[in-house]
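# step 3/5: fold
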Amino acid sequence: MAKILRMSKEATVEAVRGGRVTICVVGLGYIGLPLAVLFVQEGARVKGCVRTETSAERVNRGETHVTEHDVSALLDEGAHLLEGSCPNCGVRLFELETEAFCPCCGRLASVTKFGVHLQDKVAEAHARLTRARQSLQDLLKAALKTGRLSASTQTAQATRQSDVVLITVGTPIDNRNIPNYADLLSASKNVGQGLQKDTLVILKSTVSPGTTENLVRSALEEESQLKSGNDFGLAFMPETIKEGHALYEFRNLPRIVGGITTRDATAAANLFSVFKGPVYVYDQAATIEASKLFMNIYRDVNIALANEFALACEKMGVDALQAINAANIDPKTHILTPGLVGGYCLPKDTYHFTHSSERVGYSPQLMTLARQLNSGMPSHILDLTEEVLAEINVNLRGAGVALLGLGFKANSGDLRNTPAKPIYEGLLKRGVNVKAQDPFAQNDQVNQVFQGINRVGSVEEAVREVSCTIIVTDHLEYRRLTAKKLKRLMAAPCAIVDARHIIDPEEARAAGVHVRSLGKPTRNPPSNE
């Protein structure tokens, strides 16, 4: 077995690429599975561990519910990184031939010395890429063919046969917003049962500060009867990828790591040096645990500020999107785009931090208020729907409404904490007849999350003869929609509620369609009186 803890960076990289390093990945979800296949690509042997035989069999057949598009293919075509970042996604822009665009949402961008401004059009290069929606599945099948990847439920056994263990299990919050570490504790104990001397354990799950050194360390030591820092290595190294963009970001984004000892952190950094992105080493795991939470909380608070601007501007008759674009011309300002917030990380990471903070006597306020504001945005979309239907004299109860998009973000079928769920449930409570369409979400997951939903296969079928269309998710195919196109299929009179800044309000009014757009004026600008 490779003694990772005692090897230099060069020796570690050579051992991985020479097939002499075995990595156990505990949890094959949105983080674990892409990491597993990418390490296999680099030459490592990977033993993936999941909870059920059904999940293991599915992985071993080359099947996955995780949809990723490998934008690295655009770099192979000659694309290069620009200095500017997407105001919507926060990722660095790409440029390919004459197109500057966001590699995540795909929107074209205008880049000047005064900042970045998004256009409503989708880059053709990105559209080509996302037509191949199973790139991760293709990589998984290729990894399995090498014979260096397998999945099982036997975590202790896989740990016993591995040089490195990556723990990537989920760390949700409960209905009281308290972190639930049951799966992490179970995974840590299972790893501890197979832990050998000189093995390196790297926790990658998002956790409250102190979790690596306390909960995980204690479980590993108790089960193995070994001592961290001496007998085995333990470090915390989070991933900061955007889902759907992960395959590129896993290879290229900078990483940060903290360990129980500097040796442990350095060994983890050496392992991940097989990828292009630099790795920065810190002394304490708790510092890096906090920094990971800071990243997502910053984004959540920034979006909450943008949402508050949007809510006020709707009433004041000011276009919040234009105002934000103008404000961002100042290089000291970086306001994100207002919108619905969902997914696995942002809705919970505030509470991972506040839980630890409150236990030591400080109750954070700003981040908590921001989280509450973002959680309330689906209710605002329901209010806009009720308002615009009243404007066209359509009774909310019994009205036909189309929901476009069920996933929480563009070009993904991930339904975790999706804002579409409270919107759907709110419509049902109001007696609305709902049809829904999403090109990415899988039927079994849709039926679990959206009880009794009437899901149809196309946008045309969804909007046919409904009084109102609500655009919940900014999938690429929705960005090609116009009010004029929708009006041809919808009932008369008809209305649109746009939560994703896709429909041009002026074009909608010219087409005779009543519209409500998040952050767009609902009346004329106020007078000076």
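# step 4/5: annotate
Confidence is low (pLDDT under 50) at residues 524-529.
# step 5/5: archive (pending)
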